[in-house]
BTB/POZ domain-containing protein (Dichanthelium oligosanthes), 270 residues
Amino acid sequence: MDCCICSPMATMYRLPRNTVCAPCHEGAKAIIGFLNKDEQEGDGCLLYTSRCGLRDAWEQVKEMRDREENTNQRAAFLEQGFALAWREGIHTDIFIKPGTGAPIPAHKAILAARSEVFRHMLSADDRCKAPAGDSISLPELSHDELSLLIAFLYTGALDQGLPERHLHALLVAADKYDVPFLRRACEARLAAAVDPRNVLRTLEVAELSSSAVLRERAMDTVVEHAEQVVFSPQYEEFAVRNAGLCVEITRALLAKMSTTRTKAPCIEDV
Ligand SMILES: [Zn+2]
């Protein structure tokens, strides 16, 4: 069938309008449905696209594209300015000491604006009359991890391809210093990378950082690949350190077994 929308013929001739292929028909319905839903969620009223069709839907898509472009430009403007201030050490007023390696200069105002915990730490310093330009210590982080944390506070971005151990450290730091945006970024990266080989460490980190989302994802992976995980050499060490999690794993496995048994057809049913 020559579709009047996507067929190569449609670019040259005006084909009969009632010949629309199934993908175009489904796609058009989905776009209008999506935009209506978007509009309902936005201000609670139903949009006109359902009455006026795809032409108005297209106009709305163009508006969305313009808004996205503006937002990207604004984000880039803010990110570049803050990143430059940090990278070039412009008027920094505090040193942050990692557990290992050299201290990193930063700005008190940025730390306080991004984290309530830092704000309290810094205002406690003010009350105690700590010398100006003094330092704070984050001994649980290595120099590289601290550098990534501070970079995120300035730019809101995580480098692509960060090793898992850095993401683990950043997630724990996001929890400790109360930076929800960093927490979500780390959770998303780690959840996407969970597999039977790294799941035990991921589960430990999820527990340590009180990350319910990551914990659930990791627990599902343990249950799904139970044999590979529970008989792995790492499981014994994990069990020594995490008795509570092992109890949960056992319960989750038993719950899965009983569900599987319930779903299995009885001989009489066959
Ligand atoms: Zn088509």
